[in-house]
Amino acid sequence: MPEKMSKFLLGCTVLLLVHVACASKKLPGHLKHLGAHQTGKGITMIGKFSRAPVFYGHFIKHNKPLWMRSALEYVKHPGLDWTDQFLRKKYGDLNVKVEVGKKEDRTKRPTSMTLSQFLNSYKTNDLYLVQTLNDKMEELVYVPECLHCGGLQKVIQEAVIWLGSGKAKSVLHYDDLDNILCLLDGKKNFFLVDKAFKSDVEADGFVQSEGYSLVDVDKVDFEKFPRLANIEWYQANLSKGDCLYVPKGWYHQVTSSGVRHLAINLWFAHVYWFDPSNCSIDQDYYKLIEPITKFGFASPNESYRSKLLEHLVDKELLFKDVVISSLGTSTEERRGQFFDAIDKYKDNVLSWGELYGFDIDKAISKFPDIFGLPGSWDYKSDDVLYDPIVEQPFEEPLASEESTMSASSQPLPDDTLLENNQPNIDESPLEVTTHPDVVDVLEAESQDSQKPQKVSSKKEEL
């Protein structure tokens, strides 16, 4: 290449870099905290926990966040009174996982110490407790009514306690699970980005294997992360007693503050079908909170079910050929074998009840390749992954039973008080507001959720 041409191209490159640098410096929010480039939008807010049918229909199904302000006070959650002394007395001798540093750095490995050691030093040292609540500490976990039925109670994966002091900041990241975080003390400010902005968030400096960005949340450099200047974001500033639903895949960054900030979150696998049959009015559905022992934690493999069903959500009828062509893993023969193993009614079409009814642990052991996992399998043509169908003998109901059934099938009037002495209302949420100060609204009951639910037939599930 002639020397003059080389110098010309070098000069153009330098000018281009200077232009980009100058343009970045002119962008609002350059070298300032995350979100300074524009005002955050508000999200839907209600004054309590939503009921499961409304929660699924309005929020989970449509991947919309929900701020439940003062929800813990509404249900009188015992965690609002958990002091450090209480935690030390009950669990002080247990080993817990502690992050060193209040600004999250995922390249650092957490350390371990007893809970008493942590409580003795976290207010004067840069320590942050991030501990899965299992074994003895599982008794701290309560499940809100929005997860009590419809299948949501079957996919709760994990509960984590977060405890620190002063200002603590997470990285910008997303989770592969749905998340409800409840704040028992202190404050937490959430920066939320719809997963629709995936290409912008992940364009530069994104660690794909772990789902987080390398951007400095205190000093966003638009020269290194230019496309972050394009994103719209939502804000939710939580106080003690508030809960927040963060949908799977939504990017978020959390800043905690206060002399003491304490939170517990529940992670649960995303569900693509809501089963109303176990949300009838004669069950414990209306209790406001339940201990996790009532439902138990689901198999960790439920997240693989969720990932598999992502490929089927837009299909109207799940015939065998449709399912086989939609699943992109393994061979066509193996996909056919998997279909046969979960086709409970042997009619070459699957209902969503069947898709959520097969044994996920057994499925992964027999068909790891279908779920994109390594490993060998021991499949036999007569293997099935569901409980056998048991024919129930028909019995004529007694007269007293008929009257009970008739009464229980009637919808409750709006002013009926339930056993928790709260009105039988659940208001419909308003549209998301764009004002930075989120409008406080009460949730209105959708008309459908007031109607008595019936067990859907196979055709109705399709």
Describe this structure in words.
This protein is an alpha+beta fold. Helix content is 24%, strand content 19%. The protein is built from 14 helices and 17 strands. Strands 1, 2, 3, 4, 5, 7, 8, 9, 12, 13 and 14 form an eleven-stranded mixed sheet that branches. Helix 8 (320-326) crosses helix 9. The longest helix is centred in the N-terminal third of the chain and has 24 residues, at 3-26. The N and C termini lie far apart (66 Å). Residues 14-21 and 397-462 have low confidence and may be disordered.
Describe the secondary-structure layout.
Layout: H1 3-26, E1 45-46, H2 52-60, E2 66-68, H3 71-74, H4 84-91, E3 95-100, E4 111-114, H5 115-121, E5 127-132, E6 142-144, E7 156-164, E8 168-169, E9 178-193, H6 198-201, E10 206-207, E11 212-213, E12 234-239, E13 243-246, E14 251-268, E15 289-291, H7 302-309, E16 318-319, H8 320-326, H9 332-342, E17 349-350, H10 352-355, H11 360-366, H12 399-408, H13 447-450, H14 458-461
Parallel strand pairs: 1-2
Antiparallel strand pairs: 2-13, 3-4, 3-5, 5-7, 6-15, 7-14, 8-14, 9-12, 9-13, 9-14, 10-11, 16-17
